[in-house]
Each structure stands twice: as C-alpha cells, then as structure tokens.
C-alpha cells in the first residue's frame, strides 16, 4: 500500500444491511469504494453496540481493497491482537479512550497494522501533536461517534491545523460523520484525503440496486476533488 494524498472514499458499512454484509461489501467495492470502513462500538465508550472481532474476521473474506477498522471501544489494548487476527489493515482507536494512546499506537503497529488515532469533536488537534510519528492516520470526527446519519459538525479549522502539523509525514487525514457532496469539499480543501460516508453512500441503493451506491460515491468524490 503506497502512501497517497489522493481522495479516497470509504463507505461505512454501519449503513449497510446487517443481514447481508458480504454482498454489501462486494457491491460497494464493485461500485468504486477505495476503502471499507468498519465501525466497532462497545456500548460503553459510545452509546451503541455493533459487532466485534469475529464479525470483522468474516467481513475480511469479502474485502479486496483496504479494511479500515474504527474502534469506538474502551479499553483498547486488550483487543488489539484480536483485530489484527481479524485482518484489519488500519486500526483506529480514540485518543479519548484511555490515558496511554502512545503505547496503544505502538502496540497496533507492533501487531502488524497501520495505526490510526481518532479525535471526538470536542478534542483539540493538539491532543495528537506528540503522536504523529506513531500514527498512519488521524481521524477527525465530524459527529459525536455512536450513530450514522447525524448532522455534520464543521471541523475544518481543526483539519487545517492538523494538516500543517503533519507536514511531510505520511499520515492520512480521515473525516468521519455527515460527509456528503455538500460537506466533502469543505474538508478536502482543508487537507483531508480519506472521506468516510455511511448514509450518503448507501441511500437509495441496495445489493439489488447497487448502481445507486456508485452514483453516490462518484458524487462525493467529484465534489471533493473539485475543491482541490
Ligand atoms: C459514527 C461512525 C461513522 C458513521 C458515519 O460513529 O464512526 O463511521 O457510520 O455515518 P454517516 O456518514 O451516516 O454520518
Ligand atoms: Zn467510523
């Protein structure tokens, strides 16, 4: 996987049909997804529960691109090896999930994955300033994590600050929450390169009608690239 700042669209399967993940993953990839974003929630760090490592391992069999696993769980460290075994390419943990994110990022890389660190909307860019040499991705949440379909919270000033802090380091900036063709250009112009989108990708489509997924992905990509 060579590093690139080209725009990547990462559909979140949180908006997929939970009874049909395999075919949903195949459909979004066939329709142009660059990465597949997998939201793990524990009902403790966030007020919702999704799925754990065994389900993620089952998704892996269908993912041909990049499996981007966003863990909204606390604690993180006891589960790192399980997500490595499940086949995560990127494993992104929250800086708010515990006191030792520095150690967590080392452990994620040590387990053979790319390491991501996510920031809630209320967390400043400076919280990750001393973690950037240990990170492959910084995820800027533009909603409070826990649910799909929420309204975008404008974090463009934070994205700009992070982009300057990152400089020449090969660290992706990912945006997660409320990304659609209207909000994508704002964050792309500020320096984001990975755009997670759940409801805006899956709306109007299904495994029986996957072309809507393709049209949605192309609309987000075109809007973002138009801002560069
Ligand atoms: C929210 C998740 C997101 C979510 C995005 O906690 O981390 O990945 O699925 O969904 P939309 O794009 O609908 O805001
Ligand atoms: Zn997410």
Automatic annotation (TrEMBL):
Catalytic activity: D-ribulose 5-phosphate = D-xylulose 5-phosphate
GO biological process, one term: pentose-phosphate shunt
Coiled-coil features, chain-numbered ranges: none
Keywords assigned by UniProt, alphabetized: Carbohydrate metabolism, Cobalt, Isomerase, Manganese, Metal-binding, Zinc
Cofactor: a divalent metal cation; Co(2+); Mn(2+); Fe(2+)
Ligase recorded as keyword: no
Cofactor note: Binds 1 divalent metal cation per subunit.
GO MF term set: D-ribulose-phosphate 3-epimerase activity; metal ion binding
Pathway: Carbohydrate degradation
Active-site residues, Swiss-Prot/TrEMBL: 39 (proton acceptor), 176 (proton donor)
Highest taxon listed in the record's lineage: Bacteria
Family membership: Belongs to the ribulose-phosphate 3-epimerase family.
Summary of the function given for this chain in its UniProt record: Catalyzes the reversible epimerization of D-ribulose 5-phosphate to D-xylulose 5-phosphate.
Family annotation (PANTHER family): RIBULOSE-5-PHOSPHATE-3-EPIMERASE (PTHR11749)
Name listed for the protein in its UniProt record: Ribulose-phosphate 3-epimerase
């Amino acid at each position: 996987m060579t590093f690139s700042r080209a725009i990547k669209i990462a559909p979140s399967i949180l908006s997929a049909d939970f009874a049909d993940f395999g075919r949903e993953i195949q459909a979004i990839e066939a329709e142009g997804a660059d990465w597949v974003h997998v939201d793990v929630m524990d009902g403790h760090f966030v007020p919702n529960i999704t799925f754990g490592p065994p389900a993620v391992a089952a998704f892996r069999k269908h993912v041909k691109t990049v499996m981007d696993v966003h863990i909204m769980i606390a604690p993180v460290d006891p589960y790192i090896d399980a997500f490595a075994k499940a086949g995560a390419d990127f494993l992104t943990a929250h800086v708010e999930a515990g006191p030792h994110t520095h150690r967590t990022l080392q452990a994620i890389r040590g387990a053979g994955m790319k390491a991501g660190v996510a920031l809630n909307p209320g967390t400043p860019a400076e919280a990750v300033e001393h973690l950037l040499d240990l990170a492959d991705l910084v995820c800027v949440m533009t909603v409070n994590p826990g649910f799909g379909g929420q309204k975008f919270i404008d974090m463009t000033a934070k994205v700009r600050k992070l982009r300057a802090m990152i400089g020449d380091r090969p660290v992706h900036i990912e945006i997660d929450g409320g990304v659609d063709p209207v909000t994508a250009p704002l964050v792309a112009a500020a320096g984001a390169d990975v755009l997670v989108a759940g409801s805006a990708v899956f709306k109007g489509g299904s495994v029986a009608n996957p072309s809507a997924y393709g049209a949605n992905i192309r609309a987000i990509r075109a809007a973002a690239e138009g801002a560069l």
